[in-house]
Structure formats: C-alpha cells, structure tokens
Known about the structure:
By secondary structure, the protein is mainly alpha-helical. The chain has helices at 9-18, 25-33, 39-51, 55-68, 73-88, 94-107, 112-125, 128-140, 146-157, 170-181, and strands spanning 164-167, 189-192. It contains ten helices and two strands.
Amino acid sequence: ATPTPPLPMHDIVAIADSSTELAALPYLADRVVKDSIDVEARRGLATALLAVGSIDLGQREALRLLARDACDDTGLVGIVNNHGMRFASGEMPVDSVIAAAERHLRCVPRSPEAWGNLAMSAQFTGDSTALTRALDTLATLEYISPAYRRLAEWSVTAMPPNAFVAVDGLFDWLLLRQLQHAGLRRDLQVRYTSPRGGLRDAGNRPVVA
C-alpha cells in the first residue's frame, strides 16, 4: 500500500484555528514531525498546539526547539505562554513565570509575550514598580493594534462610573490596564479571571488581580 503523505503544516495550523475536532490535532501533528529535524515544521506545530490548548504537547515541542537553539523565539514564546496558562490555573508558581519571561527577554528584549507575563506577575505580587515598567514597555511595542485599542476605548466609555469589569484572558486584561495606565477610566475595577480556573494566591485560593 502507498503510504499516506504527511499533512502540510499550513493545514495543521488551519485545523488549530478553525476545527472543532481539536482532539485530532496531536495525532495529526505527530504524523507531520515525529522524529523530524524540520525546524520550521516544529515551530508551526508548537504554535498550533498551544493555540488549541494542548499545553503539555506544546511545551514538548517548544523544549525541542530550545534544545537546538536556546534563543529560538518560537520556543521561548511557547514556554512563556505555557507558564502563563499554568500560572492562571494554579499549576505554576509565580517565580517560574517570572524566570521564563526574564529568560525570554535575555534573547528578545522587546518580546510582548514576556512583558505581558511580567505585567501579570507584577499585578499578582503587588509589585507596582515592575507593573509600571511592564506597561510602559508594552506601550512602546504596539502590542495592541490601533483598531483593537479604539474598540476598547469605545467600550469603556459606555461603562458607568466605578464599574466592575471582569475579563477572562491576559490580552484583554493587558488592554484595559494599558488604557488605565494612559489615564483613561481609572475608576473602573478591572479584574482578571481565566477560563482555566482564575488566578491563585500562594495558598492556591482564587484571587482577583
């Protein structure tokens, strides 16, 4: 029988973006790059796995990239994102999140993913100096697109005074915190939760940042 050719990586990424059959992704991914030294394919795989929440497999591929090149940006982003998700679910101590972000910044000083995690960590630990530094840096990186920022500005202007705003993702939390950092709607009480269980304190109790 003629072997089935491997699925192209762009198809894997498309599946990660749109398919509802997410459980099939790890199988398809292994078909593509099992025992492969194709670095670009492995980068695509790491990105796709993390995009659909396959945290363990995504970290595996990120670590394989870093084993070949300690400053591989996709590998570093994968580890930073992995640690951020594990921290939000109470599985990862904040010190590990900070260490991963700082490792990333040694290779890529203007990484928005790393600065985003440092901002989250600083909010969690109550380090206002580190939070200000992270938000200041993110403001120079154009991490938030102008269109997305305008949408957020329009959204918050319609909110009543001292409104409680709960957001379920790091990107949305950073967007609102950046707006407040720039002086817009500082009266809002922005709270970051997570679909993976929410931020936890040192005793693994849910907290609002």
